[in-house]
Amino acid sequence: MPKSLRSPRHQRFLAQLISLRKAKGLTQEQVAEKLGRPQSFVAKYEGGERRLDVVEFLDVTAALDTDPCEILSSLQL
Amino acid sequence: MPKSLRSPRHQRFLAQLISLRKAKGLTQEQVAEKLGRPQSFVAKYEGGERRLDVVEFLDVTAALDTDPCEILSSLQL
DNA sequence: GCAGCCTATCCCAAAATGGGATAATCCGAA
DNA sequence: TTCGGATTATCCCATTTTGGGATAGGCTGC
C-alpha cells in the first residue's frame, strides 16, 4: 500500500466510503459496475491500495448516491 | 500530461484552483510553501501534470483558504 | 463440509510521480 | 524597447503507483 495513503485522514476517508457502500446495501461488484470498472478497482481504493483523485471521488459518491460534501466535512482537519 | 487528466471536468477543476489562487493574490511558490512542497508540485497539479487525491485536495483548499464544497459543486456533472 | 457470494491479493508491464535544476514567460519600470 | 526580477513551466529519470483479469482467501448459512 502506498504510504501516502496511511494517514489518519485517509483512513477515515476510506472507512466512510466503505460504511456508506454497505449502508446502501451495495457490493464492490455493484459499485464497480456503476463506475464501469472492475471489482478490483473498488477493492483497491477501499483497501487504500490506490488513491482516488477528485473527479474519481465525485464518480464514486455518485455511484453511492451520496453527497460528496458530507464526506469531506467529516475529514476537515 | 496523463490522459486521465484531460476531461472537461478536470479542466474546470484546474481552472477553479488557478483562478482561486490568483484571486487570493497568491503565487505558486506561496501555496507550495503552505503545503510544505516545492513550487513544481503546484505547477504540476495546476497544469494537469499530476492529479490531486482527495486528502491533498483538502490541503490545497485549506492553503487557498477556501471551502472545498464550493469547488466540488461547480463540478457536478 | 460444501456451495455461493464477496473481498483481497497476485502479477508486472505500463503509466504516473518527485523535486531540484533550469528554461521560458510575464510584466512593470526606466 | 530593453532589462531584471518575479512567476510559472518543463526536464530528467529513478522510484512509485496503476490496471485489471485471474485467482486465492473469507465468511455465512445450510
UniProtKB/TrEMBL annotation, chains A, B:
<dbReference type="GO" id="GO:0003677">
    <property type="term" value="F:DNA binding"/>
</dbReference>
<dbReference type="InterPro" id="IPR001387">
    <property type="entry name" value="Cro/C1-type_HTH"/>
</dbReference>
<dbReference type="Pfam" id="PF13560">
    <property type="entry name" value="HTH_31"/>
</dbReference>
<feature type="domain" description="HTH cro/C1-type">
    <location>
        <begin position="17"/>
        <end position="71"/>
    </location>
</feature>
<dbReference type="InterPro" id="IPR010982">
    <property type="entry name" value="Lambda_DNA-bd_dom_sf"/>
</dbReference>
<protein>
    <submittedName>
        <fullName>Helix-turn-helix domain-containing protein</fullName>
    </submittedName>
</protein>
